[in-house]
Amino acid sequence: MQVKEIVLVAQDLASYGKDRPDELGAGSIVPLVKSVSEMVERVRLLYLYPSDLSDELIHVILDSGVPYFDLSLQHVSKPLLRKMRRWGDGQRFLDRIADIRRHQADAVFRSNFIVGYPGETEADHDALLSFVQEAELDWCGFFTYSAEDGTYAATLPDQVPASLARERHAELQEVQDEITAAKRDNEMGTVHRVLIDAQGSARSHREAPEIDGVVQVDESLTVGEFYDVEIVDALGPDLIGEVVSGATGNRRSGQQ
After folding, report:
1. How many domains does the chain have?
2. Angle (nearest 5°) at CA 185 between 183 and 189
3. What is the mean pLDDT of residues 196-200?
4. Per-residue confidence at 70, pLDDT binned at 50, 70, 90?
5. Residue 238 banded pLDDT, cuts 50, 70, 90
6. Cβ-based neighbours of 179, under 8 Å, separated by 6 or more
7. Partner of 108 at 20 to 30 A CA spacing, among 43, 62, 154, 254?
8. Domain with 130 in it
């Protein structure tokens, strides 16, 4: 079976090549993404630090045909992000997301956030809640902080009580679930090109494997092939698709 999608993932993917500029040309991941996108129908990048999300990288992702941005944001409170030794703040993140959407309105966004990090105040939580509501990310994961012996964070003062962290987590998850459900409902009546991953299960460019929802399709469709399907229903994070055309092969290579 021909490879149809390649997923590039690393702890800090956008920093690829910076330590080897002489060997890797520009010393960035951009040439790699360009090369891979010429060989397969889809190339998907997971886990990008916003500090390394350059204009050049944004454009090469958009040009790849998979406008999916998995941004490692972690939080939006500037003081907390500095404790995490991270760059940015909520407004910078919103500006970057808005800029990408100006280039491509249907770009898809995923991120993950840590809830209850040491020193997180009620104001910090409210700021994150407001960000989630305003950013309207397609997919979002929340992880309740848990102290681990030997880690830097475990030594920080103002540890957030576990019960409070769980409450904050639940509040954020409820808001995001409504956003995701609304976005999925909005897909009804649209046509998507999907890749069949397994019998009855497919993905468009909007869904990364194993972490997002899926498009449920007829089990007779061939695994490993692309089909155009119309979205006829939504079940939470999952969509229901009906074929509007047969297998379309690999458009980049022209092979069926």
Report:
1. 2
2. 115
3. 97
4. very high
5. very high
6. 132, 133, 136, 137, 140
7. 254
8. 5-185
Residues 219/200, Cβ–Cβ less than 8 Å: yes
Residue range 228-238: average pLDDT? 96
* Cβ atoms 134, 146 nearer than 8 A: no
Residue with tokens 């992702």: 61
Tokens standing for residue 127: 């700021």
CATH of the domain at 118: 3.80.30.20
What are the tens digits of pLDDT across the range 97-152?
999 999 999 999 999 999 999 999 999 999 999 999 999 999 999 999 998 888 99
90-103 vs 122-135: helix crossing angle, rounded to 10 = 0
Measuring CA to CA, which residue among 67, 70, 153 is closest to residue 112? Answer: 70
Question: Does a structural domain hold residue 32?
Answer: yes
Q: Are residues 69 and 28 in the same domain?
A: yes
Q: Is position 165 within any domain?
A: yes
* Residue 248 maps to a domain: no
- Residue 1's pLDDT band, with cuts at 50, 70 and 90, is low
What's the CA gap between 14 and 29, in Å, rounded?
Answer: 6
